[in-house]
Amino acid sequence: MNSQSITPHVAQGLPATPVSFSVPFWKRALDITCILTAAPFWVPLCLLIGLFIKIVSPGPVLFKQERIGHRGKRFQCLKFRTMVPNADTLVHQRHLNQLMTSNQPMKKLDARDKRLIPCGLWLRSCGLDELPQLINVLRGDMSLVGPRPCVAYEYELFQPAHRRRCETLPGLTGLWQVKGKNRTTFERMMELDVTYVESKSLLLDLKIILFTPVAILIQVWDVKMSRKSALQMPAPAGVVPISVSAQERKESIVPFLPFRPASLSRV
Questions:
Q1: Average pLDDT, the chain
Q2: How far from each other are the two terminal CA atoms of the chain, in whole angstroms?
Q3: Contact 159, 103 (CB under 8 A)
Q4: Which end of the chain is more exposed for a tag (fewer CB within 10 A), N or C?
Q5: Which domain covers residue 195, as residue numbers?
Q6: Which of 112, 147, 125, 134 has its CA nearest to residue 62?
């Protein structure tokens, strides 16, 4: 009998250690406290986003995808659906393979991807599509802070040193997100994730949570700039470029930023 049949929900390469045996108490306490305290804000926001998705695009509101979490445990990661139903995932897989084998910044395809639903680009750039993962945090599959949970085909390409990032709970935000995110390379992302694993603490988690809004503002600005430059670049194979008219360019102003922050103007 092979190891897959013994531990069907655990990725090969890591022991099937139960999460509850190694997650610090302070981390679980911080997650629950923050989620319950912020519930009056994020629960109505989730309802509004879910209603909006239902109106602008046929299909389910939530997107479920199997991810690799703590100690290789597989779980169903939740997100708001920001792409058309049955969108081709091979496009993302090819792009990810390219990023993992090159020294290029970890930029997404979002700026020129027509698979996105209306306003899907801004839901993703603001991180609002990941709000349902608060349910994953409550279930114990994730934490507020930690490396992003990877997909199975990404995990299979990891080197042994890369898999150390799975020695802690995956998170909604993390050290990589506040240290450059899409401006960094794949190897730099791995370094930051492993650094977090080795040095995680209550104070570090609080600092990362505090700086996450700033990181989101910078990401929104980067996406806006990428959208402009994408009009002058050919789209990758399999991705239909977005055709932007004058009216669409006018409407593409970030709805979540009514002003242009001076700090972002110098980024």
A1: 81
A2: 55
A3: no
A4: N
A5: 3-238
A6: 134
pLDDT at 154 > cutoff 60: yes
In a domain, 253, yes or no: no
Q: What tens digit of pLDDT does each residue of 4-40 get?
A: 332 334 555 554 433 334 789 999 999 999 999 999 9
Residue 243 has pLDDT above 80, yes or no: no
DSSP for the chain, written as a single string: --HHHHSTTB-TTS----GGGTS-HHHHHHHHHHHHHTHHHHHHHHHHHHHHHHHHSSS-SEEEEEEE-GGGBEEEEEEE--B-TT--SHHHHHHHHHHHTS------SGGG-TTBPTTHHHHHHTTGGGTTHHHHHHHTS-EEESPPPEEHHHHHT--TTGGGGGGS--EEE-HHHHTTGGGS-HHHHHHHHHHHHHH--HHHHHHHHHHHHHHHHHHHHHHHHHHHHHTTSPPPTT-PPPP--HHHHHHTS-TT-SS--HHHHT-
Joined tokens for residue 156: 């299979």
> pLDDT at residue 216 above 50?
yes
Return the pLDDT at 178.
94
The pair of structure tokens assigned to 146 is 């930690």
252 is a domain residue: no
Of the candidate ranges 99-103, 181-185, 205-209, the one whose mean pLDDT is the lowest? 99-103
Element (H, E) at 37: helix 25-37
Q: How many domains does the chain have?
A: 1
Flag whether 131 is in a domain: yes
Q: How far is Cα 28 from Cα 142, in angstroms, rounded to an integer?
A: 10
Q: Position of tokens 């090159």? A: 102
**Residues present in the chain in total:** 267
